[in-house]
Write a structure and sequence with these properties.
With 418 residues, the protein is an all-beta fold. The chain is 0% helix and 52% strand. It has strands at residues 4-8, 13-16, 22-25, 31-38, 44-50, 53-59, 67-73, 77-82, 88-92, 96-100, 108-111, 119-124, 130-134, 139-143, 151-154, 162-167, 174-179, 185-190, 199-202, 210-213, 219-222, 226-230, 239-244, 251-254, 260-263, 268-272, 279-283, 290-296, 300-305, 310-313, 323-327, 335-336, 347-354, 358-366, 371-380, 383-390, 397-405, 408-416.
Length: 418
């Protein structure tokens, strides 16, 4: 059967200059957060490592303060999942899954008899049924009694060499991202509770960085510069869409089939509120690669990452203003166009072209040379873009807008008349 692939060439990227992501911590050397999970608005857990010591941390005040509750030598803790406010599970670079039934005050170890000593991801369907994936000859481990006993449903090596992530939207239906020893990349699906064989879909691109499904058939898989979406539970037999958008993704999480977040590189967070048709962009105050996302309801979101980055929003990230790509046809040269209209009140359009993918910064300065607004700062694909600049918060006067990218810089004048 012919595969239908719809390419959405990042033509619907909106960028926010009003991002309301609060930085709780950042810029801590050698501290790497791997996962985050909040059981309610106050109590949450983070897994990760610092130097050679694995860590589990806990907050009881909405993420403002964190206490280290577990320190382990020589390995990291990779994933955390709670099935209720008291009961949670953690796995990592060890043959153990640890469990708490009292919000992390005490933990019990469960030794996993498998070929894998690296456990990467945890997902529970309900309080009893859960799955854990592992590397080193690839394994999927399952419990049906709330973690009291675990058994291997998939394992023993080829072809599942390293299963990096799993997501089970129901007891029997689940998805995994993995790579085989030869380097081929796959998205796989089970409809029989994880038992072999799985249905394998071989897709192009770099290593998959995350997956998330809102039901048995609709979900997303991401790598650094592509977002794959299926609405029929398949990645090659019928149709799927590919959004070409450089996110540097570290994780993706769907709140539902409309609202989806991606934790990206350089402190960037991407959000869709219409199932991935359009993506909003938030530039946070950190410059770290972000690795994990967790929701508390529809508006409170936590994101963690490298160098101890912890970010929080309580309003879904804030309001957005627009930057839209006009064309992905590669221009011959860098070009900053004159804004239109000019003079303007209070919105004007700024158009620019970049001939190669790279870092781009678009800044507005007042007549004295002081920075008035950073409209965009981050990676963009080669192409031509429009930016709708809203100056309603600025006073009337002469302003300058400046485009910087790699070895290019150009400045133009505009006049705000209120």
């Amino acid at each position: 059967m012919k595969i239908l692939v719809i390419l959405i060439l990042a033509a619907f990227l909106n960028v926010t200059s009003q991002s309301q992501w609060f930085t709780i911590s950042s810029d801590i050397p050698n501290l790497y957060y791997k996962d985050v999970y909040f059981v309610n608005g106050e109590t949450g857990f983070i897994t990760g490592y610092k130097l050679n010591k694995g860590m589990v941390m806990k907050s009881t005040n909405g993420g403002l303060h964190w206490d280290t509750i577990i320190v382990s030598n020589n390995y990291t803790w990779n994933a955390v999942f709670f099935t209720d406010v008291n009961t949670g599970y953690v796995c990592g670079d060890s043959p153990y899954i640890i469990k708490t039934t009292n919000q992390g005050l005490n933990w019990t170890q469960h030794l996993i008899q498998s070929n894998s000593s690296i456990l990467n991801d945890i997902d529970f369907v309900d309080s009893l049924t859960g799955y854990v994936s592992g590397s080193e000859l690839g394994v999927v481990i399952k419990t049906t009694n709330g973690g009291n006993n675990w058994f291997i449903v998939l394992g023993g090596g080829y072809p599942y060499s390293a299963i990096d992530g799993i997501d089970f939207p129901s007891k029997d239906t689940g998805y995994a991202i993995w790579k085989e020893e030869q380097g081929s990349l796959y998205v796989s699906k089970t409809t029989n509770g994880g038992r072999y064989p799985w249905i394998d879909y071989n897709n192009q691109g770099s290593t998959y960085r995350g997956l998330s499904f809102c039901n048995n058939t609709t979900g997303w898989v991401v790598n650094t510069n592509r977002i794959f979406k299926t609405t029929n539970g398949s990645f090659n037999s019928q149709s799927y869409t590919i959004t070409i958008l450089y996110t540097g993704a570290g994780d993706i999480l769907a709140l539902n089939c409309d609202t989806v977040y991606i934790a990206g590189s350089f402190g960037r967070i991407f959000k869709s509120t219409n199932g991935g048709i359009n993506w909003l962009y938030f530039q946070t105050s950190v410059n770290s690669n972000l690795t994990a996302i967790n929701f508390i309801g529809k508006d409170t979101v936590f994101v963690v990452g490298e160098f101890g980055a912890i970010l929080k929003t309580t309003n879904g990230g804030g309001n957005t203003i627009g930057i839209n790509i006009v064309s992905l046809e590669i221009p011959a040269v860098y070009l900053l166009y004159q804004n239109y209209p000019n003079p303007f009140n209070p919105v004007t359009n700024i158009k620019f072209s970049i001939p190669k993918t790279g870092f781009v910064k678009l800044t507005v300065y007042d007549a004295a040379g002081r920075e008035a607004a950073v409209l965009y700062s981050g990676e963009l694909t080669a192409g031509t873009y429009n930016y709708d600049f809203d100056a309603s918060q600025l006073a009337s006067g002469i302003y300058f807008y400046k485009l910087e990218s790699n070895d290019f810089s150009q400045t133009k004048k505009m006049v705000l008349v209120k």
